[in-house]
What we know:
Elements: H1 3-9, H2 23-34, E1 45-50, H3 53-60, E2 83-90, H4 91-98, H5 103-125, E3 129-130, H6 138-144, E4 151-160
Antiparallel strand pairs: 1-2, 2-4, 3-4
Helix pairs in contact: 2-5, 4-5
Amino acid sequence: MKFQDIVALRQSVRQYTDREVTDEQVLTLLEWAHSAPSAGNLRPWEFIVIRDREQLKRICGTTFFSNSEDSNIHQDWMLTAPVTIAVCADEEKIGGRYGKTSIFEQIKYLDCSAAVENILLGAVELGLSGCYMCGFRTEELRRVLSLPKNVTPVALIPIGYEAKKTPRRQRVPVKELIHREQYGTRYFPDGHE
């Protein structure tokens, strides 16, 4: 599959079949994640593969929708995925190199997000689907995953085979988001192809 096709086909899927995702597929995805760019080549990510249904229910109990962090409405759709990958950041790796500078918090999320993107694009390559999810209560999830205090959960990625075709969402044309030299000057003026 061509890269342009992989990018075009990638979308957030929230309903999966019960078809197994193999350990080989998971390892391939995590090898690709580990190839993501990283500030100072620190590669601060840690990956937790979750298959156990009871553990996944506990993880789901830490989730919430939208801005309703205190709600008891969880993202139960993730329970349909046969495997979920938790992507976490080891803050000691980052702090050892950069200290507690302003870049510290950014690296945690930027580096791990690059790894997440590789997982999501890789899933398409393998005929799988996934969803980038960060609607969870961090401290609760930290306890459920038994994370040490220097490791922070950044994302949950349910992975599986899409159960039904997910409708594509409309997007603003990219030309409307590109500026020239500074914000507010369109790079592609109206009528330019």
